[in-house]
């Protein structure tokens, strides 16, 4: 994610750096229409449009304040805490489920991983392989089984095993995108039948390199399923990461973790100050 901001400043500067097309710059940084509009108006009202260094500093401040606040924590509870991971195919749900199991397992939590992606047999095998490597409990359904029933069963088993945490991986590709949302919503309702507090966290796993498209994915999933946060993956690549601020601004949803690689350790708690520093080039 590092280094793109200076390139964009160069690209959208004119008059020897005196004038910056802030709107084009902020949009290209994936900050989305609403936030770009608000930041540009703010610079205009504060007389900073023609003062690039001060303007940049003001945007930096504003991003920090948008992203301020503690990320949600996985608390202790009588019944297993449930994390439901949703998102479109290839976003990194299965890998992230494994990374989370690894992370919380290291903290001493007893974790159950559930494969509620019964659409693709390979998806179950993928998660099972991770579970074996981490040495965590694993629950899956037969191919074609109702994913909601897999989640239900996984919850029962997690309770039986006195697990602290149940992490539910879901499908990313179904016949239609609408089906995908409906299925995620059904899994959510089914888990709530076992425990009205569950799922305690519904996190959208989204590929950071898709840019502002992440905002539309978040909007759709939030409407259909109800999200409590985001995990943005592949920030080790060419992602600009602006959508993290855009999603917080427009939907009020925090980014909880970021993915920075394909290995189990490559998941970091989101740190707003660090994010803002890296956004502007470290
Ligand atoms: N570089 C990088 N690659 C990642 C990251 N997270 C996941 N990936 C890779 O992205 C690809 C897709 O990841 P999956 O975890 O299978 O994605 P998914 O959302 O489960 O996909 P579906 O099951 O098809 O919905 C894999 O090759 C992962 O290794 C990340 O943070 N950085
Ligand atoms: Mg998957």
TrEMBL record:
<dbReference type="InterPro" id="IPR042101">
    <property type="entry name" value="SRP54_N_sf"/>
</dbReference>
<keyword id="KW-1003">Cell membrane</keyword>
<feature type="binding site">
    <location>
        <begin position="87"/>
        <end position="94"/>
    </location>
    <ligand>
        <name>GTP</name>
    </ligand>
</feature>
<dbReference type="GO" id="GO:0006614">
    <property type="term" value="P:SRP-dependent cotranslational protein targeting to membrane"/>
</dbReference>
<comment type="similarity">
    <text>Belongs to the GTP-binding SRP family. FtsY subfamily.</text>
</comment>
<keyword id="KW-0675">Receptor</keyword>
<feature type="domain" description="SRP54-type proteins GTP-binding">
    <location>
        <begin position="80"/>
        <end position="281"/>
    </location>
</feature>
<feature type="binding site">
    <location>
        <begin position="169"/>
        <end position="173"/>
    </location>
    <ligand>
        <name>GTP</name>
    </ligand>
</feature>
<dbReference type="InterPro" id="IPR004390">
    <property type="entry name" value="SR_rcpt_FtsY"/>
</dbReference>
<dbReference type="GO" id="GO:0003924">
    <property type="term" value="F:GTPase activity"/>
</dbReference>
<dbReference type="InterPro" id="IPR027417">
    <property type="entry name" value="P-loop_NTPase"/>
</dbReference>
<comment type="subunit">
    <text>Part of the signal recognition particle protein translocation system, which is composed of SRP and FtsY.</text>
</comment>
<keyword id="KW-0342">GTP-binding</keyword>
<keyword id="KW-0472">Membrane</keyword>
<dbReference type="GO" id="GO:0005737">
    <property type="term" value="C:cytoplasm"/>
</dbReference>
<feature type="binding site">
    <location>
        <begin position="233"/>
        <end position="236"/>
    </location>
    <ligand>
        <name>GTP</name>
    </ligand>
</feature>
<keyword id="KW-0378">Hydrolase</keyword>
<keyword id="KW-0547">Nucleotide-binding</keyword>
<protein>
    <recommendedName>
        <fullName>Signal recognition particle receptor FtsY</fullName>
        <ecNumber>3.6.5.4</ecNumber>
    </recommendedName>
</protein>
<dbReference type="InterPro" id="IPR003593">
    <property type="entry name" value="AAA+_ATPase"/>
</dbReference>
<comment type="function">
    <text>Involved in targeting and insertion of nascent membrane proteins into the cytoplasmic membrane. Acts as a receptor for the complex formed by the signal recognition particle (SRP) and the ribosome-nascent chain (RNC).</text>
</comment>
<keyword id="KW-0963">Cytoplasm</keyword>
<dbReference type="GO" id="GO:0005525">
    <property type="term" value="F:GTP binding"/>
</dbReference>
<dbReference type="InterPro" id="IPR000897">
    <property type="entry name" value="SRP54_GTPase_dom"/>
</dbReference>
<dbReference type="GO" id="GO:0005886">
    <property type="term" value="C:plasma membrane"/>
</dbReference>
<dbReference type="Pfam" id="PF00448">
    <property type="entry name" value="SRP54"/>
</dbReference>
<dbReference type="GO" id="GO:0005047">
    <property type="term" value="F:signal recognition particle binding"/>
</dbReference>
<feature type="domain" description="AAA+ ATPase">
    <location>
        <begin position="79"/>
        <end position="257"/>
    </location>
</feature>
